[in-house]
Each structure stands twice: as C-alpha cells, then as structure tokens.
Design brief:
This protein is an alpha+beta fold. The chain contains nine helices and five strands. The chain folds into two domains: 91 residues, no CATH class; 109 residues, no CATH class.
Length: 210
C-alpha cells in the first residue's frame, strides 16, 4: 500500500468534512488551538506542520458532538470509497498518536513507544532515517502490508526535551484517570486527548532559545 493512498485517504475525508461540516470544523479549530491564532505563534515550516497536524487530528480523533461518530465513520457511511481507501481509513480509526524515541538510527530506524511501553519496531522511512539516536517525537503510525507506516501527524521534540515531554504526558494521563476515566489505559488517553500533544509542542516552540 503506497503512501499516496494514505495521503489520498486523508484528503477525501478532509474534503468531505469541509463540504458538509463547516461549522464543526470551525469549532474544532478553536478547540485544537485553544482559541489562539497559530499564525501569531509560529510561521514557516512550523506553521505548515501545525496545520497538517490539525487535519490529522480532525480526520482521526475529533468528534463533531460528544460520543458521536468521527469524520471517518461519517465519511464511510455517506460515501463509497475504493477498497484501498476504506482499508486505510479503518486502520486510521484505531490508530493513535504516541511518543516515540529513536533507539537505532538509520534506515530502517528502530523506534520505541516510550508512552505506552509497547515493543520496539522498525520503520523503513527516508524522512526518519536522519534522526539521531535518542531523538523523541510524537506521531501516528498504521500497519499496512506488514510494515509500520507513519501517518501525517508529527510533533518533533528532539533529544533534550524527551524526559520533560514524557513527564508531562504521564501527568496528563494521571489527571485523565482521576477526572475522566478511572479504568482508562494510556492508549485510551492518547486516543481521547491526542490534542494534548499540540499545545505541549506549541509551548516548546515559544520558549526562548538558549
């Protein structure tokens, strides 16, 4: 399954949402950015990545109404996509953004999910091959044709921020269990509150450079 098919799947759902749920997208936008204007906080490649991350979250995780179907389910119910697109979307439905550390650099790169503690895995991906050992980033992966492939969402944190980001995620998970879902797992938290990575990343971008 090619990366083009994955991009096409995202594009079809995004266009569907824009045509039929314009007001819901406006609400989602305000929620994701906490009613801030991202263009006041960043520019260039960071701003471009921010909008890509928003669309990923909108397609995969946002619910127009509490406990309602997400845009993938709404799209599948309303439209008639190709089998390949449907296969990708079914995988995206059960995917989640997590925090990863580079355990072994190169291509393939070996990644460790340091948020959930799942087993390490290899990824053949040119865009990840240049990352140093110890580099941390948040991203969404899906498995196709027996291989892990990165989705669209990426939050680059680097090496120095790794421990702090993990500490923040664990603290947010603890609040989630206390206030929202006492039986919830880390994966439940990452699915329900994946937007948390965005403001954590934004906070990093706004720090004065040392």
């Amino acid at each position: 399954m090619s990366e083009d098919i994955i991009s096409e799947a995202y594009a079809e759902v995004t266009e569907f949402a824009r045509q039929k749920y314009e007001k819901a997208i406006d609400t989602a936008y305000d929620f994701f950015w906490e009613e801030e204007d991202p263009m006041d906080m960043m520019g260039g490649s960071a701003l471009e990545l921010g909008f890509i991350n928003f669309e990923d979250w909108l397609v995969c995780d946002y619910r127009p109404e509490e406990k309602s179907p997400g845009f993938i389910d709404l799209f599948l119910h309303s439209e008639n996509p190709s089998d390949e697109i449907k296969e990708v979307l079914e995988k995206l439905k059960v995917s989640y953004i997590s925090l990863y550390e580079v355990k072994k650099a190169g291509n393939p790169v070996v990644l460790s999910d340091i948020a959930t503690g799942d087993d390490d895995f290899e990824v053949n991906d040119e865009q990840l091959s240049h990352l140093e050992k110890g580099y941390a980033f948040a991203a969404r992966f899906i498995e196709t044709d027996g291989e892990r492939k990165i989705g669209r969402s990426v939050y680059p944190f680097g090496i120095k921020m790794k421990d702090e980001i993990l500490k923040l995620i664990n603290a947010q998970f603890a609040r989630y269990k206390k206030n929202k879902n006492s039986e919830g797992t880390m994966k439940d938290f990452l699915v329900d509150e994946s937007y948390a990575f965005n403001m954590t990343w934004m906070s990093c971008l706004q720090r004065p450079k040392k």
